[in-house]
């Protein structure tokens, strides 16, 4: 039987991680996988998470099963963080998931259960896993144009033109902030225009929010999501806790669904059903830590302060890289680096130029020229800028 299996294409981002590890050069620079790193290249456990873990170790008396959809306290903490304290409780259903990836997958499954004819609209480009999960599910999807390669900014006119094709009951996947892989994001006015269009079409927005707090701040990064949630009757939000709580391997995420109040009970039951059919209970540890951090004023204040340090560090690196490139190129054509937000920027190098930088300079970025800003430090910013110019970008 198993000899009939065909090899699967590896995840390019994870494969790059392996190549980086195998490279013996000591001056190598990893700008590949989307993991936050400090100036020393470490991905630390955040202070508030460590403190919560210590408390939990003292207080936890059982590891029996929790609730199938996850604890209501976790749902409420996540909804408060994403939607604000006054979120519509009578319309919200929520599911604790295995990371943001699990939230995306469950959101796609839920959409398909509710509307077997659904088409999922996805930005071009997007996080490659969106497309590979949809393909694996044999789920129809369409791409909408998003990125203007020349200016490295959002091609909003093209995006709106493509979304004109959306049908009632279709799902439109939007990155809530810090677009992966481009770094280019909608303005709040553009979010409003998207809301108008989805409202007119009767389409359902699904927001992938994997980097809240990594762009312009916890509140600012949720602004587009909150605008959509305030305007549309039905919304899905797939939130990840991997990056903003630094708990990648704990696999913590949350799918939130806004429906009409009358549909809430069945929607909530369907979410629990999806967990049960897939793996029964989602892992508890990360979700419990997130709940503790968000509910305890002292832990929360410390977490928010550390998240701000992380965010400002990345903004500083963006400014430094843009300044270096301005000087070396004697032009402002790389100023987009300082305007992009989040961990990533698509720099606009060809696959050959990306390869040249890997071979000549031991600089690793994803093949579409997405670079992880957090992989830089004061020493490597000038090296990267030089390599970008030398590669002819
Ligand atoms: N969505 C996007 C756009 C991402 O970049 C990521 C990255 O990790 C995820 C979702 C899911 O993250 P995780 O499953 O690690 O929580
Ligand atoms: O885009 C990234 O780099 C992150 C991390 O299969 C990631 O989202 C990459 C690949 C993958 C899962 C997570």
From TrEMBL:
Molecular function GO labels: transaminase activity
Sorted UniProt keywords: Aminotransferase, Pyridoxal phosphate, Transferase
Highest taxon, organism lineage: Bacteria
Which SUPFAM superfamilies did the record assign?
PLP-dependent transferases (SSF53383)
Q: Which residues form the Aminotransferase class I/classII large domain?
A: 26-388
**Cofactor requirement:** pyridoxal 5'-phosphate
Q: Does the keyword Cytoplasm apply?
A: no
Oligomeric state and interaction partners are given as:
Homodimer.
Family indicated by similarity: Belongs to the class-I pyridoxal-phosphate-dependent aminotransferase family.
* Protein name as annotated: Aspartate/tyrosine/aromatic aminotransferase
């Amino acid at each position: 039987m198993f000899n009939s299996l065909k090899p699967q294409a590896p995840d390019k981002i994870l494969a790059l991680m392996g190549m980086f590890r195998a490279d013996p050069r000591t001056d190598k620079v990893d700008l590949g996988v989307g993991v936050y790193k400090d100036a020393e290249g470490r991905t630390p456990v955040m202070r508030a998470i460590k403190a919560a873990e210590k408390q939990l170790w003292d207080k936890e008396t059982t590891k029996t099963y929790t609730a199938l959809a996850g604890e209501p306290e976790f749902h409420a903490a996540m909804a408060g963080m994403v939607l604000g304290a006054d979120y519509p409780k009578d319309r919200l259903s929520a599911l604790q998931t295995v990371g943001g990836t699990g939230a995306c997958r469950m959101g796609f499954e839920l959409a398909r259960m509710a509307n077997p004819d659904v088409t999922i609209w996805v930005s071009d480009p997007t996080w490659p896993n969106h497309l590979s999960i949809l393909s694996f599910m044999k789920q129809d999807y369409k791409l909408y144009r998003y990125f203007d390669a020349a200016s490295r900014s959002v091609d909003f006119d093209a995006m709106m033109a493509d979304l004109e094709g959306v049908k009632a009951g279709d799902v439109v996947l939007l990155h809530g902030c810090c677009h992966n892989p481009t770094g280019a994001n909608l303005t709040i006015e553009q979010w409003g225009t998207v809301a108008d269009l989805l409202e007119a079409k009767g389409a359902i927005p699904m927001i992938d929010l994997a980097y809240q707090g990594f762009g312009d701040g916890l509140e600012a990064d949720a602004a587009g999501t909150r605008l959509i949630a305030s305007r549309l009757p039905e919304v899905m939000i797939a939130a990840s806790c991997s990056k903003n709580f630094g708990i990648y391997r704990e696999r913590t995420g949350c799918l939130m669904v806004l429906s009409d109040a009358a549909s809430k009970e069945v929607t909530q039951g369907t979410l629990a059903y999806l967990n049960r059919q897939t793996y029964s209970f989602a892992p508890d540890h990360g979700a419990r830590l997130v709940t503790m951090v968000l509910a305890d004023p002292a832990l929360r204040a410390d977490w928010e302060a550390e998240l701000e340090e992380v965010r400002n560090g990345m903004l500083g690196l963006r400014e430094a890289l843009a300044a270096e490139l301005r000087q070396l190129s004697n032009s402002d054509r790389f100023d987009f680096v300082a305007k992009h937000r989040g961990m990533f920027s698509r720099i606009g190098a060809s696959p050959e130029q990306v390869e040249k930088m890997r071979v000549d300079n031991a600089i690793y970025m994803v093949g579409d020229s997405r670079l992880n800003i957090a992989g830089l430090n004061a020493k490597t910013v000038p090296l990267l800028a030089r390599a970008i110019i030398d590669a002819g970008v």
